[in-house]
# Entry
Amino acid sequence: MADTTTEPDDRPLWGPTAYLLLVRIWMRAASQYRVSLLLTTVAQLFTTCLDLIAILVIYSHVRTIGGFTLPETLYLYGTTRLAFAVSDALASGVENLATMIRLGNFDLVLIRPVSSLAQVLADQFTPKRFGKLAAPVLTLGWAIDALPLHWTAAKAAVAIGTVVCGLVLYCALWVLTGCISFIAVDAQEVANSFTYGSENATEYPLSIFGRPLGLALTFVLPVAFVTWQPSLYVLGHPDPFGLPEFLRFASPAAAAVLSGLAALAWRACIRHYRSTGS
Amino acid sequence: MTTTSTTDPIILAEGLTKAFGSSPGRFRRRRTTDGGFTAVDGIDLRIAPGELVGYIGPNGAGKSTTIKMLTGILTPTSGLLRVAGFEPQRDRVRLARRIGVVFGQRTTLWWDLPLKDSFTLLQRLYRIPPDRFGENLAYYTAALDLGEFLDRPVRQLSLGQRMRGDITAALLHDPAVVYLDEPTIGLDVVSKHAVREFLSDLNQRTGTTILLTTHDIADIERLCSRVVAIDHGRVTYDGSIDDLRADRDLETVVRELYLGRSLVDTTE
# Structure
């Protein structure tokens, strides 16, 4: 509305604005099928609770896992799940990328005057993904209530930062896995093992995996930064792997590095996109 | 005012080449076992603003690959390419507001939403000023007879209706260049006629440059003053339609072109 003279204005629509615009239109499209939307939302809500039940069952037999009590584990679970669920809601449009490329519809993304990434992230956005938020929010609430912690401003900030950095890191992972679709169109399963796999890995205390795998998850796929390292600080728990203290606060750096990598990879993929036959 | 004077071509290609499977880029190691092939092999093309050019050739000749390079979808392997002063792949997002693309075989509209919603979304995405958008939508609604199905979900439209919607979608932002990839494919006689008359009128009324690929001789005959034919990625004819059908009927000549006879004389 503000711009009455768009003639010389050459700037494309800002990526986040385009994203929100597309999210809105996809939500409208999804709401055309109301019953299906309602049922799948409820289904999402229940399936995300299943993991939680598994954790509760384990703790009915043992007092601690890898040195972590039930509220501590639920805190780890809650932060990871929350970060993942939000990233899933925001960015899992990337999962459609392989199909888009295979059917040639990705061509249509590239003829629009807005960021290709914004279009892909928003693709087929559906409100049902919000169903996944319920379980982690409740769990985290309960864990925070049950933890015998003295909350300081610093701890609260780190706790919020944990979720935010985790969410950014997962979004970057989504984009990177999307890049796999450019190289091998059938590779969505491989891609899923990175996103969903890393999520599953970090919702338990990392110490249950033992040192080699735990370190691999920390440094190769910097998944551990999502919740593990900052949560050790919040919970006042020593690092079972004995890593240096500063890593507790390295999440923003890890998120920034991975986001940068994802952006570079995406650009390279667009440049080398091969399209389909006709 | 503008950087392009009337003599400058709006589309300029020199030695434009696209090879698949052996691209010399960062992914060099990813060689295909089938050796790769060259879809477009050194094409030279100069199209002046306001021209309506038919781009023809048999299936697999390299037409779609050319158009995908002109839109910035594909990166050329080598050669020079400028569209409206832009290097398409590098300036893809900025170029997008100056070009319109219609794919006869796929829709750019939002399947589950009323046709009109796709248009209003495009207004935002292309940043079309509201008054301009209103004018254009009113014009195209009348010219392409969209009124009766503007509020219907795209999935419920007939092919002919959908194509008219797609053409409108490609033009609402007043593009300087429009690529139409088989816009009349699968349409009935009446719809084909309507689309042709519309395109001819668009070209004359607004001076929009149009590049049209088609397998329908009647499209070419009705619309194009100039024809560029390619085969195996090389230009086999580039000239006026009148020269092309000087001594025989167009269909025979086109069939011969498709069978691989080159009509290119070394001049131009």
The beta strands of chain B are 11-20, 37-47, 52-56, 78-83, 99-103, 177-181, 209-213, 226-231, 234-240. The interface with chain A takes residues 20, 23, 25-27, 30, 59-60, 64, 68, 71-75, 89, 92-94, 96-97, 99, 101, 103, 105-106, 108, 110-113, 117, 121, 124-130, 153 of chain B (CB under 8 Å). Confidence is low (pLDDT under 50) at residues 1-5, 22-34 of chain B.
